[in-house]
């Protein structure tokens, strides 16, 4: 039971960047229309699945190697953030990823 609680807490902690990213996306990219009603629960659901499976797999295979576990947690966080950016809808203008790319690199 204690191990299950630890996995649950770690999975919830891994969702904090997703929630923060969604808050920023809602604030700075408001042109989503009704797509946001469907997209935000989907994003949270799939990111919680990714975080949960990642936490279980990291605990099972990388728990003994601290550096490998930290790198795996970092990769799972990057994957959830990339998923959040890719699935966030945008009705007006180009997708969010294209807008961010143009803002940062052009």
Mind sketching the topology for me?
Blueprint (H helix, E strand, L loop, with lengths): L1 H13 L1 H13 L6 H27 L4 H22 L8 H10 L1
Keywords: Membrane, Transmembrane, Transmembrane helix
Task: Provide a concise account of the structure shown.
With 106 residues, the chain is mostly helical. The protein contains five helices and no strands. The radius of gyration is 16 Å and the shape is elongated.
Kindly describe this structure.
The protein has 106 residues and is mainly alpha-helical. It has one domain (1-105). The protein is built from five helices and no strands. The protein has helices at 2-14, 16-28, 35-61, 66-87, 96-105. Helix 1 (2-14) packs across helix 3 (35-61) and helix 3 packs antiparallel against helix 4. The radius of gyration is 16 Å and the shape is elongated. The mean pLDDT is 88. The chain crosses the membrane at residues 12-30, 36-58, 70-88. Keywords: Membrane, Transmembrane, Transmembrane helix.
């Amino acid at each position: 039971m204690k191990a299950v609680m630890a996995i649950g807490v770690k999975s919830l902690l891994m969702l904090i960047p997703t929630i923060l990213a969604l808050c920023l996306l809602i604030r700075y990219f408001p042109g989503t229309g009704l797509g946001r009603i469907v997209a935000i629960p989907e994003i949270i659901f799939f990111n919680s699945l990714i975080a949960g499976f990642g936490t279980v797999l990291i605990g099972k295979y990388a728990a003994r190697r601290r550096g490998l576990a930290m790198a795996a947690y970092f990769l799972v966080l990057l994957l959830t953030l990339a998923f959040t950016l890719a699935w966030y809808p945008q009705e007006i203008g180009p997708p969010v990823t294209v807008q961010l790319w143009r803002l940062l690199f052009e």
